[in-house]
Model the fold of this input.
Amino acid sequence: MQFATPPKRDGRGQMSDEYRSIQISVPDTINELLQTLKKRPTALLYAGGTQILREQPDRFLRLPSEIIELRHVEELQRISRTEKYVEIGAGVTIGALLELSARVFPEMFYQAIRHISRPGTAHLATIGGNLCVPDSVMTLTPVLLVFDTQIELRRQGKAHWLPLSRFRDDSGTTVIEPGEVMTRIRIPIKSWEHSRFYNYGAAYLPNTNPLTFAAVAETEKDILADVRIALAVGGKHIIRQRELEAELVGRRVPFQQRDLDLLHRRVGEMLEQRGYTPEHVSYERIERLLRVFATGIGS
Done:
């Protein structure tokens, strides 16, 4: 490990107290983790550390004074599946997910984790870490949103499930509180007739104009029975409007031009409300994605 400045040592070669002040806790169970969080609610939760390393301003590693290491908490590494959903511990790595059969997960989710997997970090980066970056919306969030995913948040003495759609406020910042930790992700299992996933740029590189598009749809004969569309724009905001989805349900497919115009117009309005202009995000690209998805339904 490198330090921000060369570590001072005493005459015996021991590290000075300045660098001994970093306190690292390594809980083995979820109960130990919650007890530690109660004592140190603002400690850095460290799993794979990939996002923390990206945020370092130079080659020297800077860490806060309190760190809680999560990789030894066995409960955070579990994966289970029922007839209704698949449940993933927040500490499960992207590499571990890819080692399972694609049939375990919804198809688009598996496609998304393959997309974000990198040879050097796949067994470090975790699903919880991807969802919990405080001020950046990473790739998996819009994908899991269209599945109506729920997350479990825990603190000592309290646990509750929260729809992923309520995990961030209007500014895109996570609402997790000091002393809380995400422990499980619950993804409903449903075989969608139509699904589309696209990703451009990288949320941690704003100058790449990051954009993630995720959409699913189901038809009954020639009628749209269900549709869900979510976008992560600029690595900061989620665009999803349930009222628009409800308005589209019941229409005949393939969509008519007026339906496509409605879809484009409403998404454009949502982008403008968030302060985005064609200079910040490619409206043309979003319209193309919407058209490809919408015209593919029922065709």
